[in-house]
Amino acid sequence: MPDLSRISFRHPVNQRMFVDAPLGARIADRVTGFLGSWRFVIVQSIIVVIWIAGNVVLLFRFDPYPFILLNLAFSTQAAYAAPLILLAGNRSAQRDRLTLEHAASEADLEESQNEELLLGNRQILERVERLEQSILSLERSISAAVERLERPEGRADPID
pLDDT (tens digit, 9 = 90+) per residue, 118-156? Predict the structure, then answer.
């Protein structure tokens, strides 16, 4: 397992859960990481095969069939592994909860920023509409003034 103190975590929850974790939690994470690996399954299987083969062929004589010491070793391993696995599971659930809470707070922040942007866009559009109305009003008054200047005074528009 890599040294977590040298890894830079991007998410603040991961920083808090791994780098700033107490020693016991880091040990539990490492042990359960090893217990849940293929390396552990293979090493344990090799040890069990050597244990059984050595005691059956009588290379060793410390744990003859029915392998009571081997059963005791498995029971002891299970007694320590179960609480460590539960501890790691609880930490994983806590990390998931903290990640969701952080994501929700980030989403709330983004939503408020989006609302501010929409409000700003709405205000800009209203200003553009007012400017457009002003421009149209100016255009009408300029057109009317130009028409008055083009018409000779006192004469009515010619009728065709």
Answer: 999 999 999 999 999 999 999 999 999 998 888 876 555
Structure tokens that stand for 53 in this block: 């083969």
Q: Where are the alpha helices (DSSP H) in 9-67?
A: 12-14, 23-35, 38-56
**Is 152 within a domain?**
no
Task: Match 């991961």 to its residue by tokens.
Answer: 14
Q: How many CA atoms does the CB half-sphere of 104 hold within 13 Å? A: 6
Structural domains counted in the chain: 1
Q: How far apart are CA 101 and CA 67, in angstroms?
A: 50
The residue segments making up the domain with residue 88 are 4-110
Read off the pTM. 0.53
